[in-house]
Every structure is written in C-alpha cells, then in structure tokens.
Amino acid sequence: MALPKAIRTYMIYLVLALALLLAGLVTWSQVKAREIEAMYPPIGEMIDVGGYSLHALHVPRPGTADLPPLVFIHGASGNLRDQLVPFGRELEGRAEMLFIDRPGHGWSERGGSKNNTPDGQAEAIARAMRAKGISRAIIIGHSFGGAIAASLALGHPEMTAGLVFLAPATHPWPGGIAWYYGLTSTPLIGPLFAHTLALPAGLTRIDSGSACVFAPNPTPGDYVTQTGPALVLRPAAFRNNAVDVHNLKPYATRVAPRYSEITAPTVIITGDSDSIVLAHIHSEGLARDIQGAELLWIRNLGHKPDHVTPGLAVKAIEKVAGFPVDLKAAAVAAEAALAGDDAACPGEAPSAG
C-alpha cells in the first residue's frame, strides 16, 4: 500500500535535512580539525618505519648523560607532548630520549591494521628506535602505553634495558569500555560518528575529561594548552584511538599470560584513587607476573603519575638503571605532597578498564 503523497514528501524533506546536517557537521569537523592541527603542529621528525612514518622527538645523548637512553610511550587519547612536558624538564641533560606519537596518533601515520593492537605498535616503536641508533633503552609507558611497553619487552628483550609502568593498562578486566569507543570502532557507524559528532562533542569535554583523568589531583592549569589532547578529536585519530581501546581487552587476555617471560628490571607506579584503570588488576598483575618487579602504591594519586609525581617516576627510572635509590622513601615523600588533593571529577571518566 503506497504512502500518502504528503507523508512521502515529508520523508523526502526529512532525509534531505538530515543529509544537509551531516554534510555540515563533516565540513565543520574538517575545518576545526585543521585549526587544531595549526595549534599543535609537528615538533619532531617523521621516521620511516617500513612503508609509513612515525612522528617522534629525538633528544640526542648529552655530554652530561648519566642514564641510558629513554623511550616514552603515551597512553590512549594522547600524543608525545603528554610525556614530553613533564619528562623533558625533569630529565634535561641526563639522557638520550625518544618521545613518540604512537601509530595513528598525533602526527604519526597509522600503518595499517597490524597497528590495531599493542604488539604491532611495539614493533613500530622498535623500528623507530633502531632508526635513531637506539639499540637498548629503558621503556616508560603510561596507561595504554604500558601494554605496548610490555609487548616491546616480550618481542624485543634485547632492546629493553628496563621498564617503568605508570598507571598501566595491561590485563583483562571485568566489564567493558566507554560507549563511544565501542560505537566508533564499528565498521560503518564508527567512521560516520568520528566525522560528524565526535569533534564537537569532544571539545565540550576536554576540560572535564582531563579533570576526571587527574582526579583527585588537580589538573595543571596549562595541561590542555601544553599537551594538545584535542589532536585525538580529529576524525581519523578519534577512530584509531577507539579501535585501540576496543581491541585492548582481547589482546591483554591473550598476551598477559606471557608477562612472566619478561626479565627486565621493572618498577610500577600506581595510584589508589585511579578512576580510569583498575590498578588492583593491572598494576598488581604486573607485579605478580614480572619477577622482581617493584610496585609503588601511592595514596591519593589518580591516573597521571607522569604529571603529578614526575619526580617519583624519575626515581623509578634511576632504580631500573641501577642507581641505589630508596623507592619506598621516595614514595612516602610523593604521598605527603598529595595529602591535601581533593579535586573532583565533574562527569563520567573515560574508563578503559
């Protein structure tokens, strides 16, 4: 039975209006993405890692170096600036350093489906290390970067002088992930969402989302402007990030049983107030699985030990490098500095387990 002409006309206009709305959102997102890129241009070099390039900032070994080379791996929704801001200052003049945009993040190219899981990204980072003449380094991984650091240690033990995990995400966890990660990782609706609604919606949540990641510690006033989290809102980066997070749990389920093969000196720093990852699963899991690993539980610390307790992270780096460091005393001092922190998360934290 044919629909009345008035209803058919109404449906045609509705479809046209929806198409125009989507086209407008796509155009707006493209324009806004270019504005974000202009605000946060590449600050390093493009390194060919086999048919595609990673963006990395390489700090050559200084004459005053007392540490081995250091490689920093950022977490989900991040880019190399997130680790560069705290550690570039804290470790200036002490080591050769490599800060990397993970595949498909920041200014790095994705490099195909092999980089949809941490092992592929670990291989890409190993190639970047070799390209810069770094044959062996201490690997520092924050959050999702922890899974990649562990994968690098499994795949390239000869290149791993030590491991420092900061609020890592490395093991399978109960429950799922934030809804928008699942939606964006789907084949058809995901790209549509990433190119239309993700950027305008994301811009409204950058400050509140950062506050949730840092809570109960206050977000540094210049964090958003200095580290460029808006780069992840660009459509391609947003989808890459969603695919990463969506694939992490099945990957960790498969690979976590192998962590006992890791022999590199290891320190794990985690907060008892982390609302993003379940520290008693990930951090305690690493401490259980990696023989000799030292776990530092810090009271009143959230998900950002890299920015909130960078001095303690440096002590951890020194410890795995062989320095006679009293990490327990350093942890007590870090806790004392956080005793009064009570910043609130104003909304839903973007939990990935």
Report on the structure:
The termini are far apart. The radius of gyration is 21 Å and the shape is globular. Strand 1 and strand 2 form a beta hairpin. The longest helix is centred in the N-terminal third of the chain and has 35 residues. It is of the alpha/beta class. The chain has one domain: 3-Layer(aba) Sandwich (Rossmann fold), CATH 3.40.50.1820.
Q: Identify the CATH class.
A: Alpha Beta
Instruction: State the helical fraction.
Output: 40-55%
Main β sheet profile: 8 strands, mixed
- Please state how the strands of the largest beta sheet are arranged side by side: 1-2-4-3-5-6-7-8
Which CATH architecture is right? 3-Layer(aba) Sandwich
Report the span from N to C terminus.
51 Å
Provide a quick synopsis of the model.
By secondary structure, this protein is an alpha/beta fold. The protein has one domain: 3-Layer(aba) Sandwich (Rossmann fold), CATH 3.40.50. It has helices spanning 5-39, 81-90, 118-131, 144-155, 179-184, 189-196, 198-203, 206-214, 223-227, 235-255, 279-289, 305-308, 310-320, 327-338, and strands at residues 45-48, 53-59, 70-73, 97-100, 137-142, 160-166, 266-271, 294-298.
